[in-house]
TrEMBL record:
Coiled coil: none annotated. The lineage of its organism: Eukaryota, Metazoa, Chordata, Craniata, Vertebrata. This is Acyltransferase. Keywords: Acyltransferase, Cytoplasm, Endoplasmic reticulum, Glycerol metabolism, Lipid biosynthesis, Lipid droplet, Lipid metabolism, Membrane, Transferase, Transmembrane, Transmembrane helix. Pathway: Lipid metabolism; Glycerolipid metabolism; triacylglycerol biosynthesis. It catalyses: 1,2-di-(9Z-octadecenoyl)-sn-glycerol + (9Z)-octadecenoyl-CoA = 1,2,3-tri-(9Z-octadecenoyl)-glycerol + CoA; all-trans-retinol + an acyl-CoA = an all-trans-retinyl ester + CoA; an acyl-CoA + a 1,2-diacyl-sn-glycerol = a triacyl-sn-glycerol + CoA; 2,3-di-(9Z)-octadecenoyl-sn-glycerol + (9Z)-octadecenoyl-CoA = 1,2,3-tri-(9Z-octadecenoyl)-glycerol + CoA. The gene is DGAT2.
Length: 358
């Protein structure tokens, strides 16, 4: 308007600019909150899948047998019978699933990082010893069963296979979900197949401490169950697969657990489960879905940094002696301790921190 007061126009312009700035700041704030909630949801969906998906799908399929949709259950179980041995041959890896955006939200929640220290030759096969187990091995899953931390770019030509309990692959639907990420059963048949009949460039990730190690998982503790775990070394020797020590700093920090003392009824129950079923039930908690001040199944957002160490060259011995196994096991333990000591101060641990090998 030609007759408008210039000061009034200036004031109006400033008000509009201020309003736009407030709008953008609110939008950014909301976007930040949405990002955080997406991260929480992405982590929770995996935790629930890990804990209940197999049992829930089994129950639903059994119920379906009793409904008009019984044919769906029959078709799936028929497919399951024909497909029963697929997990033992490495499964059905899906690059599409491994590259889902949900895994990037999963990574950023903690955050999770994969650190490469040495190149891996595509002409060799490898067994990665992953330590520690933690409650769920979240770092192992994110780094090796998804592309969220770009494992295929950091180790070009290497196909990672995260090994887990064979019982998981008897669960309908859960088995398909696991196989799509390149997860396989941790048994001799599967490992023998991948290291002898699947070419070279295979890397099998074994969480060596297993259920026993998970029972001692707690924040502030760096301990591994390894002293009497030598089966993975024997497999490496039989196939000439190089051993790669791998330590995940922060894996024990994301959940709090009730630790039962040796000799207590709680520890007795856990050991019985471990002996006869293959896993040990843990009483643990993280944070709530909507607040970090409440208890729930969502892990605490603590950084997890997985450091992949230097491969130990292993000769191929079809019938390794106990002396051979002990020798390379000792070399592996020494390499793991050195890896821990070299990187511990970079990830918040004091120089005096010692890796406890049990």
């Amino acid at each position: 308007m030609l007759g408008a007061d210039p000061n009034s126009q200036l004031s109006t312009g400033s008000s509009i600019l201020s309003a736009l700035q407030d709008l953008f700041s609110i939008t950014w704030l909301n976007r930040s909150k949405v990002e955080k909630q997406l991260q929480v949801i992405s982590v929770l969906q995996w935790v629930l899948s890990f804990l209940v998906l197999g049992v829930a799908c089994s129950a639903i399929l059994m119920y379906t047998f009793c409904t008009d949709c019984w044919l769906i259950a029959v078709l799936y179980f028929t497919w399951l019978a024909f497909d029963w041995n697929t997990p033992k041959k490495g499964g059905r890896r899906s690059q599409w699933v491994r590259n889902w955006a949900v895994w990037r939200y999963f990574r950023d929640y903690f955050p999770i990082q994969l650190v490469k220290t040495h190149n891996l030759l595509t002409t060799r096969n490898y067994i990665f010893g992953y330590h520690p187990h933690g409650i769920m091995g979240l770092g192992a899953f994110c780094n090796f069963s998804t592309e969220a931390t770009e494992v295929s770019k950091k180790f070009p030509g290497i196909r990672p296979y995260l090994a887990t309990l064979a019982g998981n692959f008897r669960m309908p639907v859960l088995r398909e979900y696991l196989m799509s990420g390149g997860i396989c059963p941790v048994n001799r048949d599967t490992i023998d197949y991948l290291l002898s009949k699947n070419g070279s460039g295979n890397a099998i990730i074994i969480v060596v401490g297993g259920a026993a190690e998970s029972l001692s998982s707690m924040p502030g503790k760096n301990a591994v169950t390894l002293r009497n775990r030598k089966g993975f070394v024997k497999l490496a020797l039989r196939h000439g697969a190089d051993l790669v020590p791998t330590y995940s700093f922060g894996e024990n920090e994301v959940y709090k657990q009730v630790i039962f003392e040796e000799g207590s009824w709680g520890r007795w129950v856990q050991k019985k489960f471990q002996k006869y079923i293959g896993f040990a039930p843990c009483i643990f908690h993280g944070r709530g879905l909507f607040s970090s001040d409440t208890w729930g199944l969502v892990p605490y957002s603590k950084p997890i940094t997985t450091v992949v160490g230097e491969p130990i060259t292993i000769p191929k011995l079809e019938h390794p002696t106990q002396q051979d196994i002990d020798l390379y096991h000792a070399m592996y333990v020494e390499a793991l301790v050195k890896l821990f000591d070299k990187h511990k101060t970079k990830f918040g641990l004091p120089e005096t921190e010692v890796l406890e090998v049990n």
